[in-house]
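R.M. (postdoc): so does anyone remember the format we settled on? I'll just put the structure tokens first.
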């Protein structure tokens, strides 16, 4: 995965949003952390992996992928705010999506309590593990990120 490209794109989007809304850079870490949790919940809801009581299947793959990259936007933005970049390392996927989501929630909470590089790396790795359990490929994620990034600019221009 070309993380430098994604961080650069996210940095440009963050700066654009800050300029549009007259915000101070890196002043919204807690809000972005909550936004990441919300996006993670939306992603879990689309996968329906925890809905043992329902016979309805997951949403279409493109819907799930879009929710995933919504979370990636906030994950990258948090790293930029605090001066951290993901350092790729081997990650092993969970066999169970529910377990992967619960682990991700735990890693986000650990990051919220101690906003250090180690907790950021752990959170990012857990996020990638969620993607692996969903069968997402790097090219899919990159392409979806590009599309959603462009959509986010349009939303800002439209007063989203």
């Amino acid at each position: 995965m070309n993380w430098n490209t994604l961080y650069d794109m996210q940095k440009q989007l963050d700066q654009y949003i800050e300029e549009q809304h007259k915000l101070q850079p890196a002043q919204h870490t807690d809000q972005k952390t909550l936004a990441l949790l919300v996006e993670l919940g939306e992603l879990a809801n689309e996968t329906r992996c925890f809905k043992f009581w329902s016979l309805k299947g997951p949403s279409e793959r493109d819907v799930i992928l879009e929710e995933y990259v919504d979370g990636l936007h906030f994950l990258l933005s948090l790293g930029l705010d605090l001066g951290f970049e993901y350092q790729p390392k081997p990650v092993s996927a969970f066999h169970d999506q529910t377990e992967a989501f619960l682990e991700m929630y735990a890693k986000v909470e650990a990051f919220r309590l101690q906003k250090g590089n180690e907790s950021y790396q752990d959170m990012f790795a857990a996020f990638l593990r969620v993607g692996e359990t969903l069968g997402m490929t790097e090219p899919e994620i990159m392409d979806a990120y590009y599309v959603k990034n462009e959509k986010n600019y349009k939303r800002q221009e439209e007063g989203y």
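R.M.: ...and that's the designed sequence above, right after the tokens. Also worth knowing: The chain has a mean pLDDT of 93. Residues 3-157 form a domain with the all-alpha NTP pyrophosphatase fold fold (CATH 1.10.4010.10).
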